[in-house]
Amino acid sequence: MKRIAILGGGTAGVAAAYFLAQSGAEHDVTLFEASPRLGGIVETVREGGFVIEGGPDGWVTEKPWALTLAQELGLGDEVIQSLDDTRKTYIYLDGRLEAMPNGMRMMVPGDLQAVEASALFSSEAKKAFLDEPARADALKAAAPDDDESVASFVARHFGPEVLTKIAAPLLSGVFGGDVNTLSVRAVMPAFVAMEREYGSLVTAVQAKAKGTQRPIFTTLRSGVGTLVEAMAAKIPLRWIRRNEPVKRLKRTGEGWLVDGRPFDDVLLATPVDVAAHLLEPTDHRAYELMQMEASSAVVVGFCFQENFDLPQGFGFLVPPGQGSLLMAATFMDQKFPGRIPSGGRLVRAFFGGASALRLMRCGNDEIASIARMELARILGPLPTPTITVVRRWPNSLPQYAVGHLGRMAELESRVQTIGNLWLLGNGYRGVGLPDLIRDARKAAQELSA
Ligand SMILES: Cc1c2[nH]c(c1CCC(=O)O)Cc1[nH]c(c(CCC(=O)O)c1C)Cc1[nH]c(c(CCC(=O)O)c1C)Cc1[nH]c(c(C)c1CCC(=O)O)C2
C-alpha cells in the first residue's frame, strides 16, 4: 500500500485525492491543507437566491477536462453555458465603455467589417488589421525560433494601438499579467501555431471560424464550488487534514519525510512559492526554476435586489493608464443563466496588480466602498447592494514569463530525477481549472499504475 502525501487542498490537490480514491488501488493518502477550508481560490457563496463566485466563475469550454469530471461526478444536469447570443466585452477607454467588435478571437478579428465599423480603433489600427493578411510571408519569416513576449508578437502583427487597447487588457483579464513579460508560447500557443501555418492570424482565424462555435465559457448551475464540494465528498474523511500547513519536506532514501512523517510519494499542489520553498533543501535548481512572479487579485461581488440598466454583455476590461483602480468587471447575470433570484443584478469587480496589493490591507467595508465608487464612475449611479462578498487572493496567478516552457521542461526532468514527486497547480502547465484537473488525473493514474 502506497503512502501518498498531497500538499495543498485547492482544486489540484482535491482533484488528485478524488482520482486516487476512485482508482480502485489501495492507497493510504493524507491531504494536508493549511487553511480550514478546501477549494483554494474556488469558493461559491449561495445566498438569497444569488450564486456568488469568490474566485473563478467558470472555465473555458474549449478545454474538455472539467466537463468530463463534472459528468463523472453525476453533475451533468448542472452544466450550463455562457449566454453567448448576447455576448459582448467592453474596453474602458477615454472615459467610455467601447464594445470589442463581434467575431474577435482575443485580439484577432474574424470579421473585418465589424472592425471597420468599430469606434474602438483609429484608422491606422484598422489599416493594420486589413493589411495583415498581405504580410503573411514576411510575418512567417520574421517569427523567432525562440520564445518572445506577447507584446512583441502582437506588435509584429497589428502594431502598438491593438497591443495597448485590446491585447494588454485581455491578457490582464486572463493571466493578470504584463504583456511585456508574458511568454507568447506559454499563454497563446494556438496563435503561435497559426502564425507558423498561415503567417497571417486574420487569415487563420477566418479559416478556423467556419466550424460551429460553442459558447466560450461553461460552469455549473449552483456554482464552480459544487465541483470541488462533490469531489471532496468522495474523499475518505480520514485522508483530510485541515489547518495543517506543512513546514518541512525531506527526501529520504526510498521516500519522503513530511514534517517528520514517512511517505512513499509526494504530490505538491500548494501555490508555487510554497512548493519551491519546500523543495529547496532537496533540489536547489528546481527551487530556482520555480521562481516566478504571481499576480494578486481582489474580487468584490455585489448583489442588487432591484433591476437597473447595464450595458448588454459579459463585462468590461480596463487597460493600464485609464485612470480607474479596477482591472475588470463582470455582469454575472448576463454572462450565465440562473445567477440571481427573479429580478436583481449581480456584478463582480476585480482589482489586480498594485491596486490589489494596496486594497488587500484594507477592511472589507472599505474595499467594498472603493469598488462601488469605481464601478459607479464607469457605469453611473448604482443602487445599494443587499449582499456584498469580498475575497482576497494574494499571489494567486503565476506569470508565465518569456522562456516559461523551456524552464518547465528542465523542471520536469529535475522532478523525474528526484522521483516519487509530482508538481500540481497553476504554476506549470496551464492556469485554468481544466488544466489542473487534467494534470491531477494523470498523476493519480501514474501512481496507481
Ligand atoms: C480580471 C480577471 C478575470 N479573469 C481572470 C482575471 C485575472 C486576474 C486574477 O484572477 O488574478 C482570470 C482568468 N480568466 C480566464 C482564465 C482561464 C484561462 C484558461 O483556462 O486558459 C483565468 C485564469 C478566462 C477568460 N477571461 C476572459 C477571457 C477572454 C474572453 C474574450 O475573448 O472575450 C478568457 C478566455 C475575459 C475576462 N476576464 C475577466 C473579465 C471581467 C473578462 C471580460 C468579461 C467576462 O467574460 O467576464 C475577469
TrEMBL record:
It holds the Pfam family Amino_oxidase. Keywords: Cytoplasm, FAD, Flavoprotein, Heme biosynthesis, Oxidoreductase. GO terms for cellular component: cytoplasm. It catalyses: coproporphyrinogen III + 3 O2 = coproporphyrin III + 3 H2O2. InterPro entries: Amino_oxidase, FAD/NAD-bd_sf, Protoporphyrinogen_oxidase, Zeta_carotene_desat/Oxidored. Residues 12-447 form the Amine oxidase domain. Belongs to the protoporphyrinogen/coproporphyrinogen oxidase family. Coproporphyrinogen III oxidase subfamily. Involved in coproporphyrin-dependent heme b biosynthesis. Catalyzes the oxidation of coproporphyrinogen III to coproporphyrin III. This is Coproporphyrinogen III oxidase. It comes from Granulicella pectinivorans.
